Amino acid sequence: MEKIVIIGGVAAGATAAAKARRLSADAQITILEAGADISFANCGLPYYIGGDIKSRSKLILQSPESFNDEYQTAVHIYTTATEIDRENKIVHTVDSRTGEKKTFEYTKLILAQGGKPIAPPLPGADQDHVFQLWTLDDMDRINSFIENEKPKTAVVVGGGFIGLEMTEAFAKRGMKVSVIEMMPHVMGIMEAEIAGFIQQEMISYGVDLYTNKALAEIGSKNVKLKDGTIVNADLVLLSIGVRPTLKLAQESGLAMGEAGGLLVDSTLRTSDENIYGAGDMIEFEHRVLGKKVRIPLAGPANRQGRIAAENALGKNHEYSGPIGTSIVRVFEAVAGMTGLSLKAARAEGIDADAIVVHKEHHTSYYPGAEMVTLLVVYDKATGIVLGGQTAGYAGADRRLDVLAVAVASKLTVSDLADIDFAYSPPLGNANDAMNMAAYVAENRISGFSPTMTINEIDAYLEGKKAQWVDVRDVFEFEKAHVEGSVNIPIEILSSNLDQLKKDQLIFVYDKTGKKGHQALRILTGAGFANVFNVSGGFISLSNYVSAVTPVRFVLDLPAPVEKTLGESSKEEKVEAVKEKVKEEAPTGPLIIDVRTAEEFSYGAIPGAINIPLDELEYQAKKLDNKERETILYCASGARSAYGLQILKAYGFTKVENGGGISRMMARMKR
Ligand SMILES: Cc1cc2nc3c(=O)[nH]c(=O)nc-3n(C[C@H](O)[C@H](O)[C@H](O)COP(=O)(O)OP(=O)(O)OC[C@H]3O[C@@H](n4cnc5c(N)ncnc54)[C@H](O)[C@@H]3O)c2cc1C
Fold first, then answer.
1. 468: Cβ–Cβ under 8 A, 6 or more apart, which residues?
2. pTM score, two decimals?
3. 332 in helix, strand or coil?
4. Quick check: 560 pLDDT over 90?
5. End-to-end Cα, the chain, rounded Å
6. How far, CA to CA in Å, does 635 sit from each of 120, 171, 431, 476, 602?
7. Ligand 1 pocket, Cβ-based, cut-off 6 angstroms
8. 455-469: pLDDT as tens digits
9. Three-state DSSP string of 139-181
């Protein structure tokens, strides 16, 4: 009979025990856990502090008793493994409450000890208001501190996943939060423009960002940065990374790997044939990179725990390796990555390129459409997808998972172009953002649409002068544009080519990159030879400058729209709209702009009121005077066509679709 002992009882360890029991009814299975809990949801800790998860008990997925009942596993909590006697196959332990020493015999041992947050040796780091977050105890300490001391300001040191989740949590608990990050932007592993999107969201919610800045010392009510800046801090969270827990393995003489983790083979066996490793403590070959990496994430830990149990019980399951798929939500914004970033691919000498698209997560005419950003990294020679990043509000997670499958399956961008993705108006697009990204990549690879990402443009511009051509409408242009650019809206580009010189280096951009491509085709068709479409257009430009300074072009952005936690109620919005309608001249037509509030803020037809398409149905039910002449418009005329149907359905009798902004402007001039 196998005697399986597992050291560590959370993600990898508990999964290993459960799998082992399913595979073998008679194996003796034992979990040794140093802490007070097994199988708890450490990924959920920030959401309890922030208040999204109300009940602490929801975070404890199994107690030692329930785990034993379900999986007939002896669970020993407060039990630290102190020594592995590999020759006699015995683990020595000590009970942290009583000091009692025990031994456990094994035939197979699984190490699932995870890691620990890095504790920087900083002056002041040992004070009571300075925390790290890794366990339920840590969570309880932070929670009690907030309840008892009522801190007004918080400093989060480190802009990685946990730091950003905790930023949101502290803001939800009413604190003014500042984030200190040594790298040029938060989420340092992501591309700058994806991180820039997240940063804009944080600033919108009133978070102060200190990037490219290092912490020097922690005072009782503030922190001091290395450049002398003082930042108020009633509470400090240190969240600067994780180090694998390797002391026991090292002292037992197990081999360590080149990436600083426990060395395992493809079956997760360590240098001892009877000992397996799983989770945050191991290193493994990255599927795309082909190099050993440590990826401390819950998904890989769970899968590795399962595989280690299978192999400990005689199977020969080879682990394919991680690809580093990870995702974060900060306030409403979501960003994620999978596989290699462009910078990581190029740093490894891979001849890679990337493209960016922004497209609504479902049809633009159906209410609630949100822009989703896709950045796809591919091998230039083969078109194989090496990685990708997504950002947005809704739909970013779905596209990230598609990219993860593409990376893991070594699909090419052309494979992605031809895949049917799920579509109905409220749920997707007949031409999904994923298909679009693939087309754009194909066009870049074939040379049909020379494109550069903002990052590449920034580097390319060193020592060069370029003409920027902004093909958006005049409102959007007036709000913000690259300094020195000429505004020629796409509709009049063909008839205004004489404003441009044929031999100039030209960067053409619209809002998303889509019309920029169209403009590029017009220009190349007219003999312009040195033209590039700005991949991702103005959205990417603004995301990039939000994350990187200095850049080799000038783009002054308006301050991000202020957002508050907890939206105003629908009824309040209706009253606000009614007031606005009353303010308009009661005799002329009521002009309704059905674009989003953000688009509206960039500029609108004089006298128009903004009711975004999402809210039109609700407002239409409540608005009086349905006989008044009403004109709807949006950017292109598509959303207003849908809005027309809504208003008609709610009894508006004199309503018409005014079309897109350009058409409305021409009409107003007449
Ligand atoms: C706040 C937070 C949020 C997170 N959010 C996400 C997320 O959203 N997505 C994601 O993918 N990942 C997330 N993670 C990371 C994820 O939780 C870890 O990658 C995962 O838990 C690793 O599992 P593991 O089993 O390897 O290690 P752990 O879960 O750390 O478990 C290791 C266990 O081993 C025990 N142990 C160590 N040494 C000994 C010893 N000598 N004797 C006995 N027991 C020992 C420890 O007490 C510990 O309980 C988050 C982590 C935290 C802390």
1. 481, 482, 484, 485, 486, 506, 507, 508, 509, 553
2. 0.89
3. coil
4. no
5. 90
6. 51, 35, 19, 11, 12
7. 7-8, 10-13, 32-35, 42-43, 45-46, 80-81, 112-114, 133-134, 162, 245, 248, 279-280, 296-299, 301
8. 999 999 999 999 999
9. HHHHHHHHHHHCCCEEEEECCCHHHHHHHHHHHHCCCEEEEEE
